[in-house]
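Bit of a strange request maybe. I'm writing a small parser for structure token strings and I need a real example to test against, not something I typed by hand. Could someone generate the tokens for this chain?
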Amino acid sequence: MSVQKPDLGFWKLWNLSFGFFGVQIAYALQSANISRIFATLGADPHSLSYFWILPPLMGIIVQPIVGVSSDRTWCRLGRRLPYLLLGALIAVIVMCLLPNAGSFGLSVAGAMVFGFVALMFLDTSINMAMQPFKMLVGDMVNEKQKGLAYSIQSFLCNAGSLVGYLAPIILTAIGISNIAPQGVVPASVTYSFYIGAAVLILCVIYSFATIKEMPPAEYARFHGIEAGKEEKKEKFSLTKLLKEAPATFWTVGLVQFFCWAAFLFMWTYTNGAIAASVWGTHDVASAGYQEAGNWVGTLFAVQAVGSVLWAMVIPRFKNLKTIYILSLLLGAVGFISTVFFVDKYLLFISYLLIGCAWAAMLALPFTILTNSLKGENMGAYLGLFNGTICLPQIVAAALGGVLLNVLGGSQSYMLVAAGILLVFGAISVCFIKLTYGESSNSKEL
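Reply from user aminoacidic:
Good idea to test on real output. This should exercise your parser:
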């Protein structure tokens, strides 16, 4: 039987997640600029979503492997931290290469292939660096404090997003060029990736200096694992783990499906949507299109601010279903409202509301899921749960071009479709039931 983990002080909870700040800068730079980069390299709007298929496909393969492996890793560097280090190092290298895809003298096709492969490695490495922080909270934080721990993680995540989203527009404001020859990514974007890589390395160093993972015996005591069981037990296959997964894994996964498909559409089509509706241009080589690209970063930063503010509201709700549903519906209103706003400042309202959904997506699924799990296979299940993030992105990316054709080529209507998906996500929350994997308690949310 497991022993209740002790309460942790605020700064220990903070340190468990601080590295998320650096990881999220990299993720924000990717999500805000990838469509812009590939459009600049010469990609057709109808094929933009296809560039997003391979990254989550790699994630759905790699994350369960990382989870299972880290469950069985005990070394001088720790249990989860070695995977953080490996992921961060790969991410830093790729962040220095990706924005230069159009600067190596390659053909248009060659530049896009280079960018595509680089994007695959970037997304995989970011996820490899991100997952250890989610696992560390599951490993070291008791059920009572997990809501607070994931809210801190959400705050740091959105603080990192602000830096990543605003970096190109800030660099442009201080004189870094925001235009470049056709097929070449502007220096404002390239230098933003360099800065993000530097911050990521510093955050990884901080994490290694401040986080002390539980040694095997202590971890076993707090998670109800029999002494020596990890070494002697037969290895569970991932298929068997899925069959034995708690119902919460699947019901929260259903919500995740609709939510992450919606945000894939946002990352893919916001640039084109506001370039057309606000700047009145579809020409990717125009100054207006690149200005719209910077404004996308501003809008995503507004979303992050909304998420930070809403993350402080979420813990005040005792009924997690209520706040989950409300958050997703506010996000749906935000997405749908973008089609009505042609003033770039009015779009702040839309993205503040979208931030409410993002805050819930970052904090609530992992709070609910980790409470339902036993510590024995925590990493494996969190790795498998990453599939509920990757799979909807794969589906949305594969169908994005088809849906865009159905909607008459309007990238603005793709954001409306994202809002409708969040409505379905809110409805799906009703099927969730809260359970506790390390105690006998079980109750409705």
